[in-house]
Specification:
It is a single chain. By secondary structure, the chain is an alpha/beta fold. The chain contains nine helices and nine strands. It has a single domain, classed as Spore Coat Polysaccharide Biosynthesis Protein SpsA, Chain A (Alpha-Beta Complex). It has a seven-stranded mixed β-sheet with strand order 5-4-1-6-8-7-9, sandwiched between helices. It has a two-stranded antiparallel ribbon with strand order 2-3. Helix 1 crosses helix 2 and helix 3 packs antiparallel against helix 5.
């Protein structure tokens, strides 16, 4: 069983309340969830801190996401709380900055990781903001038990790829059609937000997956 777990929060030092900023008439967080619904999974969860729940809950319901509330600072623990709530054995980790995530690439890296028995999977050389991480539940729960550094708790997966002696890692180069390591399609700053609005305008009427997003972003 695979669960898509999206981390999101309201407060952002670089772009305050960015999760609620409109993109083509809908909040950023809703656009991210809508893109992730195209990923093949058995459960879809929005993992957020308590101070974001009331703002996010209506959009999560519309998008078909379950809300799980957890620690604001310890995002690894929040992820594992969401994981335990689903009973999934695989997690596709996504973040609330990325409305142009590639669902086809997410499916591919999760499928490859399962076939290879990898604890962690992520494509290299995707556009910044297009990718996800595919992680086994067992590995993520082990990280929760063992990780001690603030970086390992705040960013969820560094303990895994920082300990290749403990975990099986699958980090292949992305297929050629999806590559764009110099392309930035995340939303973290005011300039990113302006770019995202322009990209939505360029893509209006197109299917925002994979190589189509990359073509419009160039």
């Amino acid at each position: 069983m695979t669960a898509v777990i999206l981390q999101a929060r309201l407060d952002s030092s670089r772009l305050p309340l960015k999760a609620l900023l409109p993109l083509d008439g809908e909040p950023l967080v809703f656009r991210v969830m809508s893109a992730l619904r195209a990923v093949h999974a058995d459960a879809y969860v929005l993992a957020c801190p308590a101070d974001s729940e009331a703002s996010f809950a209506p959009y999560a319901e519309r998008a078909g996401f379950r809300v799980v509330v957890g620690s604001k600072e310890d995002v690894l623990e929040r992820y594992c709380d969401a994981l335990r709530a689903t009973g999934a054995d695989r997690v596709i980790r996504a973040t609330g900055d990325n409305p142009f995530v590639f669902p086809d690439a997410a499916d591919a890296i999760n499928r490859e990781s399962i076939l290879l028995g990898a604890d962690y999977g992520a494509f290299a050389s995707l556009p910044y903001g297009a990718g996800v991480e595919a992680v086994s539940a067992e590995a993520l729960l082990r990280a929760e038990r063992e990780a001690r550094l603030p970086l390992e708790r705040e960013h969820v997966c560094p303990y895994l790829y920082g300990h290749p002696e403990l975990f099986t890692l699958h980090r292949p180069l992305a297929p050629f059609a999806w590559r764009g390591p110099d392309v930035r399609i995340t939303v973290d700053t005011a300039a990113d937000y302006e770019r995202a609005n322009a990209l939505y305008a360029a893509m209006r009427g197109a299917v925002p997956f994979g190589s189509e997003v990359l073509r419009c972003a160039k």
